[in-house]
Every structure is written in structure tokens, then in C-alpha cells.
Design a protein that fits this description.
By secondary structure, the protein is mainly beta. Among the domains are: 37 residues; 148 residues, TonB-dependent receptor, plug domain (Ferric Hydroxamate Uptake Protein, Chain A, domain 1), CATH 2.170.130. Helix content is 11%, strand content 46%. It is built from 14 helices and 51 strands. The strands form eleven sheets. The chain has a 22-stranded antiparallel barrel. Helix 10 runs antiparallel to helix 11. The N terminus is likely disordered.
């Protein structure tokens, strides 16, 4: 009850604040203020001033911004650094600024001509970065924090914010797991800290946690992204900080006057030609079918003589044009008197397409010294490279900040996003479109003359697959999402240096996913069925904090943060489905039309957190920096005996370059050493894992559906948080006036009390119980270097390079450290001493030759069979001969980027790389081994024969399903990717002003323009799963497109 009163009281404060904003400073007052300013400008005689902006080398600075403070009046310097400007009075203040330089302010006075020099901002050491519940100068940081500003994001167009992050910050690995519009993106910071719980970082937007990540955030709305990597930075978030924290600050209007900005891009997307998979055509497949038949006589002579196998040439005669057997017409008689295929379908060519996408954004911003506002709108229409796949996204965001009194500032942010996605299901490799592109045989058509679709069942012996185009057109799969995010804050200046801030935020998401599979489909089990699933998540967060800053004797500076926070999440989901619809007309609009409705299902969960946190920053003479934080968290997700935990951290830094012996050094302009330790937690598990679970099962008795309930999981009141301790050593160096900068961090992360489903005796009636029984560690080095190579009047060139080394190891798995084997065909393993995401299977030592017939016979094999290594030399190949054959986590990864500017042109060339991970291609597992029942990769043409005994593939035989987890299906996942090539041109100021614009910029870019890899498949970066233990497993993923973009940015 007390908590509800607190919440009720704060909501009243927020409502009253908004009321004051409207009543005491309504829109007309803001307009009146601006009107008075502009009116004064008309009454007074304007003064024309001229000037030139130069840098510290006395070189002109083109495109610097020059404005009159507290007005809408502004301009930009031309290509020679010159400007002209009309100012209202001689008391006016002109402000000149340029990215990377300190701003310069001048009072007009009696001057009419100015030469204004801008000094470099010491490589942004005075730049302010966002940290947990506050901000801090970059030079004062004691932790490992990476930052990206809006100017960097806008140079590289991206569909979502996650892609904008890729490769920008050392230690942050961004993987695009699907090329589908709206497809999955996973982000890991400094490796994996959990096995069963989430490894996603915590996302905080404008001080409020976004539980669904930042996919819905428009990249054009972002002002900055700050990534907290070490535990001294993330411990302030306690149980949510073990996987790192990504803090996004959005744009919030402009106090320097009103602006309108419009930007767009149009994109062309296509499958890279070099990534098109080579599969058998009709002639090749039919030849291999005949080879399978011939080899059957040697492989199974008894069955062959008994007529078990049908001669394919004779079989095809039953499918000739004009056959009277009711079969499909697939062949005609050739001149040689043998059946020849009518069709030769390239399913990849038929299924993929060159698609067009577009993106539009419009922003209105403005304000005055007391009020600033922004209204942002966006529309994205992204069409995928597989036919019928798409995403449409609509977003709107409004922000207002109001200085109510000298001691009170309030603000509100509201955003709404609507997404519609559809066309292709890439969530399951078993029967999705991508798999069927590879495995559908080419001699069966997309459609017959009677309008029915061709499928595998049209030819005897084939797997009954639907052709991929019929899957595209007849599987109506939609993903509809609505997301609302809102926050409000009130900041009170109580005393000099003492502030109190209260923030209330909420996320509400609602997803509705209707699916319908037409009766026109003939393969699989989903045909003629409908399904609707829906879920709603509601989250709110209330933070209250005091912040105190004080400097003593001009040497001692302290900052103290004290705060409390409450969070609550509620989830509700349900699913209803049916089959045997009387007509496709109903689709999912009338589930009651189905004659075989399935029982609906629903689920709900909820959790709460209560937290208390503090931080102390101390600076001595701006040389010696210390930070101590602590957070006390309580969560309803854990056992009643362990619901609360304390997470501390400490960090220290020494700015060596501020010491007298280095302060004026011409070579070393910045040198800082850092060290930190912190403890964080992970609470991202199911809400009721500590409790016994009651489940239901249904059964049919006497034509009546009945159900019963039973406990299917034991309670564990001692279940507690996973805890990650992290140690970090950092070095920051700036050389030659910071024209060369590098940052290096070495870290060690150890996670204890991993949450695992541990086996228990079967006599208990249960198989597993969730326990804290595992440990895991990550060791790594993050390194980044930025160089300012050329800095001339009309030419600049800078380089950014980063690399992240990572070594992951499981160090404990319960009392006996027993292996945990799981996944498809038990192809993955957790083993002490090895990386999480290890791949488990057999080692292939080649193919038995005719000279090895005797050796093959020992294992029940023949020449032409796969030779598997017998690890225990017992003469039997079985599960005991499996071993770890790869790992899904790379040894290192990073990015190399070069930026050039020549006059009004700018160019960015960006490469991404990864080395040391392995990938198990499950599509290859089936498409190089299921001879005669589905299509295969063209590699099978080089299979073993008595005259080709050096082949790496076994002899083709009628083996049916042949899934064998061995090293043949493994690929090196290393790659070098041409990630971004972008060319921009900014129209000279005098030309854009003639057009009534403040500025105009055009861009042309290409993404994913180059890929060098040994991986056998579409793309080595694709992955079916986000979980740590399933890294490196792929199965029929939606490919990443190569994209050409053309964009325009207008400022009014």
C-alpha cells in the first residue's frame, strides 16, 4: 500500500509539472518570445559583419557553424572559411563551433570584420559522456567506456541502431543473425557471462530501461551511444549489469532556434553473386539418381536382387507426357529414346529478387533559453531479397524540456513505433524457404498448367517438400508489433551543488502474429491451418536520486550519488490455432471456421525489483581519480532465501600527462592509467524458476477432451543470482597533440553460480532441477587506435582500427563436472576446460579406399564409406568416439575504417573482420548426404568412385536420411567483410541558401560490398541462435543482402 501511495504521489507531481508547462508557458508564450526577438530584429538596424574562421595552423575551416546566440540567425563558412552575417545589435554574441574543436564566442561591439581561431578540443578529452545515472567528462573516467556521437552515426546510414554500433567500439560484437527485414541482431560485450540466462546487454534510453532492446529506436533520433564495458562502470546497475550496459541519449531539440531537417535514402538490395549456392541442375540430379541405383547393387546386393530398388530410367517413363497413370508430366522422350526432363528450375533465381527499400525522416526542433522541443517522425519500407518478405516501420517521438524555475526543470519524452513484418519464416531450419531453395529438386516446376503447385511428392521416392515459391506465396506469416515508450523527469536544484532528480518511465509492447498456411500446400504438416499468437509486456521504472558536486581548495572535487529504484514487469501471452479450414478465404480472420481446433494456450508472468545504489567520485588536482559504487538489489525471481544481493565496485585512474614532468611534453599529449574491480549480477531468467511448476496436459477419453495438472519441476528456495567479478587494467595514450590516440584494456571476467538444469535421481520423479552449479571465465584485450593522418585546408584523412581478443572457458559444471550434451543430434557440449558453444561430433579421416577394404570391414564398412576416427581403438564407431570438433566463439574480431575529406566531398571505407570461430552448417549436413530423396549441393558430383578414390565425399548410395555430425560439415567462420563504402557531398553554403536551405548533402553508399571467407554457405555471420551454448550452429538462414544506398539530407 505504501509503495502505491509513493507511485500515486509521483504521478501527481508529473501531471502537475505538465500542467504548469501548459498553463504558465503555453505554446503562444514560446511563439511570443520568438516573435519579440524577431520583432526586435526588425526594429533595430541590422549590422552586417564579415569574418574568417581558421584553425591553430591558420588554415581556413570550411563549413564551420556561425550563429547569433539566443536567436535563429546562423550561417556556415564557405570553402575558404569565410562568412557574412547580419546581427541585431552591437551587443550580440556570435558563437562559432566545429566538431572536434572548442567553440569560440565573441561580442560584436564596434567590429565588423573578424578573424576567429578555433582550437582543437584536445581530442574530446573534455567531451561529456553518459554513465550510469549521470554524466562525466571523458578525461575524468575511471572505467572502460566507449562512445559514439550522432555525427558518426549519420555518416553511415543504417536501418537500426544495432547495426550502427557494429564495429565502432572495441569489445562490442554485433552479429546480424538474419538478413530478413527486421531480422535478429545479437550484441555481446566482452564475451558471454551466462549459459542459461540472457547474455544481452542492458539497454537504457534517456535514463529508462528498454526491456525489448533498441531495435525500435530510429537511428536518426540518437544523439549519442555510450557503452559501459567494465564492472566498475556497470556495477551501478547491479543485477542487470553483468553483460555490459548500452546507454542511448536521444536528441532533445535546439535552444539556438527552430530547425527543420529532412533526410531519406533509397536502397537496392540483392543477394551477392559470390554467395549464390551451387546445387545440382536437372541433368546432374538425374545422373546422380542413376549412380545411386548402380551402387545399390554393391551396397545391398540382396535387396537389389529382390527388386527393392527401382531403375530410375524405368521409373521416369511413368512420368512421361501423356502418361495414363495419373502422374505429373515431368519428362519427354529424347532422340535417344530415354526420358528427358521438361523443367530445369533454378530455385535460387526464382525465389530471390532484387528489392527496393526506402527510409524517410522528418524532424522539427527549436526552443529558447527556457524551453526546447523536438518532434521526430520516421517511415521505413524495407523489402527483403526473398520475394514477399518485408518490414514497414512507422515511428514518432516528441520531447519537451522546460526550465520552470531557476530551481526546477521538467521534461517529457513520448515515442510510438508500429512495425509490420511478413513473408518468410526463418526461425526454423527444418521446413523453411531457405532450406527448400537448396533441397527442392529442379525437374519439378513451380506450377503446373492446372494451377497447382509442384512439390516433392510428385515424383516417387522424393521427400515431400513444398517448393520454396509456394512456401513464399501460400504461407501467410505476419509479425505485427506496437511499442510505446514514455518517460518524464523533474530536476530540483536544492542547494548549490545539490540536485534531486526523479524519473518515471514505461515500456509497453504488444505483438500480434497471425499465420495462415493455405490448403494449396501439399508437403509438411502446417497446410490448411491458421494460428494467432499475441503477447503484451508492460514495464515501469521509477528512479529517484540525489547528486552532490563540490570542489574544495581548487584541488579536491567530489561527486556523490545516492538513489533508489523500483521496477516491475507484467507479461501476458496467448495462442489459438485450428486446422481443416473449409476454405482458404477465412485465413486467420475466423479461427472458428476450422473443424479441428486445438486447445488454446496462455501464459503470464511478472517480476519486481527494488534497488538502492550509490557512487562516490573523487578527483585530486584532476590527476588522481577514484570511483566507488555499490548497489543493493532485491528480485522476486529468486528463491526466498536469496532474494537480495550487494554489488560493489572500485576504480582508480592516474592522469600521468597532468604531472609536471609531462604536462608540456610535445610528444605525449595524454597519458592515463586505469584499474578497476567490480561485481555484477544476472537476473535475466524465468520469473518462477525457483518455484515448483504446475503444468497441464490434455487427453481424449470417450470423445471428450479432458485435462489434468501435475507438478513438473521441483522448487529450489536457494536459487540465487549469477555473479560476475571483473578485473580491468586500462591505458590511454595521446601522441602529437592527440593526432594519434590509442586505448588498451585487459580484462578478466569470472562468473560464478551459473544457472543450470542439473540432473537429479529418477526416483524423485523428475529429471532436472534448476541450480547454481557452474562457473565460467572470459579473458580478453580490447585495443583501439585513432590516427589523424592528414590535416590540410582542403584535405583530411583519419583512420580508426580496433581489435578485441577473447578467450572463453567453462571452469565448473556441478559436483562431478560432468559433460552436458544437448542440441540437434547432440551436436553441442558444455565441458570443463573448453569454450561455451563447443561443437561435438566425429572426426572424419577421409574415405576408405579399395586398398583399405579389410580395415573398413572391421567397422562394418565398405570402400567408399566415410572413415571415422576410432578414438578409443575398440573397433566400434559409436558415441564414445565423439570429441569437440570446433567452437562458435571467435578468437578476435574488429574493424578498420578510413575517413577522407576533400573540399566538399567525404569518403568512408570500412572493413570488418573476425577470426578463429567454427561453424557447423546443418544444411550441408542434409544436402550432402540424402542421396536420391532431395536435391544436393553440386559438391556431390565429386563423390568417391573406384576411379576417384581421392574424393572427400563418400560414394553415393540410397541411404535416405543421413545426418552425421562430423568435421566435413564444419567450416572456418573467419571472414573479412567490406562493411561500408560511403561517399558524400555537401553543397556549398551560397548555393544551398539560394535554394532556401541551410544545408544540403547527398550520399551514395554500398554495404556488405565485399566478403572473403572459407565458409561454405551464405554468410559466416549468420547464426540461428542467440544463446551462448548454441554459437556456431547454422541451418538455412536468411542471407544478408548487398545494399546500394542513395540519400539526401536537407536542413531548413
Amino acid at each position: 500500500m505504501k509503495k502505491q501511495l509513493y507511485l500515486h504521489f509521483f504521478l501527481k507531481i508529473c501531471v502537475l509539472s505538465l500542467s504548469f508547462l501548459i498553463v504558465f508557458n503555453p505554446v503562444q508564450d514560446v511563439l511570443a518570445f520568438n516573435y519579440m526577438e524577431s520583432r526586435g530584429t526588425v526594429i533595430l538596424d541590422n549590422i552586417l559583419i564579415k569574418g574568417k574562421v581558421i584553425n591553430s595552423n591558420n588554415e581556413p575551416m570550411p563549413f564551420a557553424t556561425v550563429l547569433v546566440k539566443d536567436t535563429d540567425i546562423k550561417t556556415q563558412t564557405d570553402g575558404d572559411g569565410n562568412f557574412t552575417l547580419e546581427v541585431p545589435s552591437r551587443t550580440s554574441v556570435i558563437v562559432v563551433f566545429f566538431i572536434g574543436y572548442e567553440k569560440n564566442e565573441r561580442i560584436v561591439g564596434d567590429q565588423t570584420t573578424f578573424t576567429i581561431q578555433l582550437k582543437e578540443s584536445n581530442n574530446n578529452l573534455e567531451e561529456v559522456v553518459v554513465i550510469g545515472y549521470g554524466t562525466q567528462r571523458k578525461s575524468d573516467l575511471t572505467g572502460a567506456v566507449g562512445s559514439i556521437k550522432s555525427s558518426e552515426l549519420m555518416q553511415r546510414p543504417a536501418i537500426n541502431v544495432e547495426q550502427s554500433l557494429a564495429g565502432k567500439i572495441a569489445g562490442v560484437n554485433v552479429s546480424t543473425n538474419s538478413g530478413r527485414p527486421g531480422g535478429r541482431t545479437s550484441i555481446s560485450i566482452r564475451g558471454f557471462s551466462s549459459i542459461n540466462a540472457s547474455n544481452d546487454p542492458l539497454y537504457v534510453v534517456d535514463g529508462v530501461i528498454w526491456t525489448e532492446g533498441i531495435t525500435n529506436l530510429n537511428p536518426n533520433d540518437v544523439e549519442s551511444i555510450d557503452v559501459l564495458k567494465d564492472a566498475s562502470s556497470t556495477a551501478i546497475y547491479g543485477t542487470r549489469g553483468s553483460n555490459g550496459v548500452i546507454i542511448v541519449t536521444t536528441k532533445r531539440g535546439d535552444k539556438d532556434g527552430s530547425q527543420v531537417r529532412y533526410d531519406n535514402y533509397f536502397a537496392i538490395n540483392q543477394l551477392p553473386a559470390s554467395r549464390n549456392l551451387d546445387v545440382l541442375n536437372s541433368k546432374e540430379w538425374l545422373f546422380m539418381e542413376e549412380e545411386v541405383f548402380k551402387n545399390a547393387s554393391k551396397f545391398d546386393p540382396t535387396g537389389f536382387l529382390a527388386g527393392k530398388y527401382i531403375n530410375p530410367v524405368e521409373k521416369r517413363k511413368a512420368y512421361l507426357v501423356g502418361n495414363t497413370l495419373g502422374n505429373r508430366e515431368l519428362f519427354t522422350l529424347g532422340q535417344n529414346g530415354l526420358p528427358q526432363p521438361i523443367y530445369d528450375i533454378d530455385w535460387s533465381k526464382e525465389t530471390f529478387r532484387t528489392s527496393l527499400s526506402q527510409n524517410h525522416n522528418l524532424a522539427f526542433t527549436g526552443g529558447n533559453p527556457k524551453t526546447n522541443y523536438g518532434f521526430y517522425m520516421g517511415y521505413a519500407d524495407d523489402n527483403g531479397i526473398i520475394k514477399e518478405s518485408f518490414q514497414k516501420k512507422y515511428n514518432v517521438r516528441a520531447v519537451v524540456d522546460q526550465q520552470m524555475k531557476d530551481w526546477l526543470k521538467v521534461g517529457v519524452t513520448l515515442s510510438y513505433v508500429r512495425k509490420n513484418e511478413g513473408g518468410v519464416d526463418d526461425s526454423n531450419g527444418s521446413y523453411n524457404v531457405i532450406r527448400n531453395v537448396v533441397e527442392m529438386v529442379p525437374f519439378i516446376p513451380f506450377k503446373y498448367s492446372d494451377g497447382t503447385y509442384g512439390y516433392g511428392g510428385d515424383y516417387a521416392g522424393l521427400e515431400k517438400l513444398d517448393n520454396p515459391l509456394s512456401e513464399v506465396y501460400e504461407n501467410n506469416i505476419l509479425f505485427n508489433s506496437n511499442a510505446f515508450n514514455g518517460s518524464s523527469y523533474a530536476n530540483f536544484k536544492i542547494l548549490k551543488g545539490l540536485e534531486f532528480t526523479s524519473t518515471l518511465g514505461t515500456n509497453i509492447t504488444n505483438d500480434v502474429n497471425p499465420n495462415f498456411s493455405s490448403s494449396k500446400l501439399q508437403g509438411g504438416t502446417r497446410k490448411n491451418s491458421s494460428r494467432i499468437s499475441s503477447n503484451e509486456t508492460k514495464f515501469w521504472q521509477w528512479s529517484n536520486r540525489f547528486n552532490y558536486n563540490k570542489t574544495f581548495n581548487e584541488k579536491h572535487t567530489i561527486n556523490v550519488l545516492l538513489g533508489t529504484e523500483k521496477q516491475k514487469l507484467n507479461y501476458l501471452g496467448w495462442t489459438a490455432s485450428t486446422g481443416s479450414m473449409p476454405d482458404d478465404y477465412y485465413t486467420y480472420f475466423n479461427l472458428g471456421a476450422g473443424s479441428t481446433p486445438l486447445a488454446p494456450s496462455s501464459a503470464t508472468n511478472s517480476y519486481q525489483m527494488e534497488s538502492y545504489f550509490s557512487r562516490l567520485n573523487y578527483s585530486l588536482d584532476e590527476k588522481y581519480l577514484f570511483t566507488v559504487t555499490g548497489r543493493f538489489d532485491g528480485s522476486s525471481r529468486f528463491g526466498k532465501n536469496n532474494q537480495f544481493a550487494f554489488f560493489p565496485s572500485a576504480a582508480a585512474a592516474w592522469r600521468v600527462s597532468e604531472e609536471d614532468f609531462l604536462k608540456n611534453n610535445r610528444t605525449i599529449s595524454n597519458l592515463k592509467l586505469r584499474a578497476s574491480y567490480g561485481l555484477t549480477g544476472n537476473s535475466e531468467i524465468g520469473s518462477y524458476r525457483s518455484l515448483a511448476n504446475l503444468s497441464t496436459n490434455a487427453y481424449i477419453f470417450g470423445n471428450i477432451r479432458s485435462s489434468g495438472s501435475a507438478i513438473d519441476r521441483l522448487a529450489n528456495p536457494d536459487l540465487q543470482w549469477e555473479k560476475t567479478a571483473q578485473y580491468d587494467l586500462g591505458l590511454e595514450v595521446g601522441i602529437l597533440d592527440n593526432r594519434i590516440n590509442f586505448i588498451a584494456d585487459a580484462y578478466y571476467k569470472k562468473t560464478n553460480d551459473l544457472l543450470l538444469d542439473a540432473p537429479i535421481p529418477s526416483t524423485s520423479g523428475y529429471s532436472t532441477v534448476t541450480k547454481n552449479i557452474g562457473n565460467m571465465e572470459n579473458r580478453g584485450i580490447d585495443f583501439a587506435i585513432n590516427t589523424d593522418n592528414i590535416r590540410k585546408k582542403n584535405l583530411t584523412w583519419s583512420t580508426t582500427f580496433n581489435i578485441s581478443y577473447l578467450k572463453n572457458k567453462v571452469t565448473a559444471l556441478g559436483e562431478n563436472n560432468e559433460d552436458i550434451i544437448y542440441g540437434f543430434k547432440e551436436g553441442q557440449i558444455l565441458r570443463v576446460g573448453y569454450s561455451v558453444g563447443s561443437i561435438f561430433g566425429y572426426v572424419r579421416d577421409g574415405i576408405y579406399s579399395t586398398d583399405e577394404a579389410a580395415q573398413a570391414k572391421v567397422y562394418g564398412k565398405l570402400p567408399g564409406d566415410v572413415k571415422i576416427r576410432d578414438f578409443n581403438n575398440d573397433g566400434i564407431i559409436n558415441a564414445k568416439d565423439r570429441t569437440i570438433i570446433g567452437k562458435g566463439i571467435p578468437d578476435f574480431y574488429g574493424t578498420l575504417s578510413n575517413s577522407f575529406r576533400y573540399k566538399a566531398f567525404d569518403l568512408i571505407v570500412e572493413f570488418q573482420y573476425s577470426k578463429g570461430n567454427d561453424i557447423f552448417n546443418n544444411t550441408r549436413n542434409s544436402s550432402e548426404g540424402r542421396f536420391g530423396i532431395a536435391n544436393n549441393y553440386a559438391t556431390v558430383l565429386d563423390s568417391w568412385t573406384p576411379t576417384n578414390q581421392s574424393a572427400v565425399l563418400e560414394q553415393v548410395r540410397p541411404t535416405g536420411y543421413s545426418y552425421f555430425m562430423d568435421t566435413r560439415k564444419m567450416s572456418d567462420g573467419s571472414f573479412i567483410r567490406g562493411k561500408n563504402l560511403a561517399l558524400g557531398y555537401t553543397l556549398p553554403k551560397y548555393l544551398s541558401e539560394k535554394m532556401g536551405l541551410s544545408s544540403l548533402r547527398v550520399t551514395a553508399s554500398t554495404q556488405n560490398f565485399f566478403l572473403s571467407t572459407k565458409y561454405f554457405g551464405y554468410d559466416p555471420e549468420l547464426n540461428n541462435y542467440n544463446t551462448a551454448f548454441s554459437q556456431g550452429i547454422t541451418y538455412s538462414n536468411y542471407p544478408k543482402p548487398k545494399t546500394y544506398m542513395f540519400g539526401l539530407t536537407l536542413n531548413f
